[in-house]
Amino acid sequence: MRKYFLALALVAVMALAIPLMAQAEDKPDGTVYFKTHNVAVGIGVTWGDGTLTYQGKEYKFTIKGLSLLDLGMGDVEAKGNVYNLKKLADFEGSYSSAKAGAALGKGIAVEQLVNNAGVKMNLKAVQQAARLTLAPGGVEIKFKK
Predict the structure, then answer these.
(1) Cα 38–40–45 angle (5° rounding)?
(2) According to the model, what pLDDT value does residue 73 have?
(3) Which of 24, 35, 68, 117 has a Cα at 20 to 30 A from 9?
(4) Per residue in 59-87, pLDDT tens?
(5) Which phi and psi (to 5°) does residue 100 adopt?
(6) How far apart are CA 142 and CA 60, in angstroms?
(7) Could you tell me which of 81, 88, 38, 87 has the C-alpha nearest to residue 60?
(8) What are the beta bridge partners of residue 75?
């Protein structure tokens, strides 16, 4: 009987702890907004500017990238949350996406970018004009001096 109550108490503690751990993981470390311009015929080129909001401060950055098997041109505005950002320096670097995607007209896409330091950006992007990407691409982010 004692083992039964001990097991029941353990289950109750776990039931309370799991939602608290999930909430802690879901809390973003910062937010990000950027606007990029894209031109592509075979190999795509992306460039733009953005702002990271982290620990109550804003940090300006540039974004540049290449993609393969790409066709189109246009602008993309994206905003979202940043996760796993333990120190500001970890935000800079090369980000990649494991998904191919497509948007026509004013397309809306949800994207997750991850860098080598494990920083993740969950983005909602709005694309102006037509663009088709058939291979994963990547971007480089650097803070403005």
Answers:
(1) 55
(2) 73
(3) 24
(4) 999 999 866 555 577 788 889 999 999 99
(5) -90, 155
(6) 9
(7) 88
(8) 37, 128
